[in-house]
Amino acid sequence: KPPQGTSPGGGVNQIPAEATVCGDMRITPFYKVQAAFDALKGYVADLNADISQLPSRGPCSKYVLEQDGLVGKLEVRMIGAPYSGIACKLDTPGHHALVAATKSVLGEAKPYSLTGSLPLVYELQQEGFDLQIVGYGLMRTYHAKNEYGLLSDFEDGFNILSRVIQNINDNAE
Known about the structure:
Blueprint: E1 4-6, E2 20-22, H1 33-49, E3 64-65, E4 70-71, H2 93-106, H3 119-126, H4 151-172
């Protein structure tokens, strides 16, 4: 998604002394968020070591104004706690039960992956729980302004989850 930018007020013909750009990092679950952020801080430090190396738009567009003793600076910081992504394990009893239940209700199972973060779910997985993430709405309306789902899809989801429980109970006996 596009970043958000702000700068202090002033005339439209004034270049502000500072500007803020906010965005987010979407890290796949195979990387550690802190390691990615540390790498980003390293790239920013490299740029700040000689900010004049950044491309500009001609002799009047500069990041270093020697006559005024001004040097541009980039800063990166994390706002709030980081969220870690999760990759569901495909070789667990929970996954096998979910696939079998989905096939029995829908006739087929097509596992797929999305990016996103569910911090509590990730923490539970790190503690050893067999976690699978499912959704039974319409992907084309997922996070849309008019997001909706069909009751028939939720009925299928309920039946699938009921069979997951049954499959796991049957295998535990």
